[in-house]
Amino acid sequence: MERFSKAWATFKGLVFCQLCMAITFLTTGIIINCIQAVMYVTIRPVNPTLYRKINFYVTYMLNSQVVFVVEWWSGSRSFIYTDPAHVKDYFGKEHALLLLNHGCEVDWLMGWVICDRVGVLGNARVYAKRILQYAPVLGWSWKFQEIVFLDRDWEKDRRNMGAQLTRLAAYPDPIWLTLFPEGTRFTQEKYEASMEVAREKGLPLLKHHLLPRTKGFVASIPYLKGKVPAIYDVVVVVEKGCKNEPSVFSLVRGEEVRTELLIRRIPMSEVPDDEKEAAAWLQKLFQDKDKVLDNYVKLGEFVPKNERDSEEYSSYKNYQKIELPRRYYSLINFCSWAALILIPLGTYLCQTMLSGSIIRISVVAILCASAYIGFNNLINLTRIDKGSTYGSTGPTPSTNGVHNNGSAKSDKPNGIGMNGSTKVESKLD
Question: 176 pairs with which residues across the strands?
Answer without folding.
Answer: 96, 124
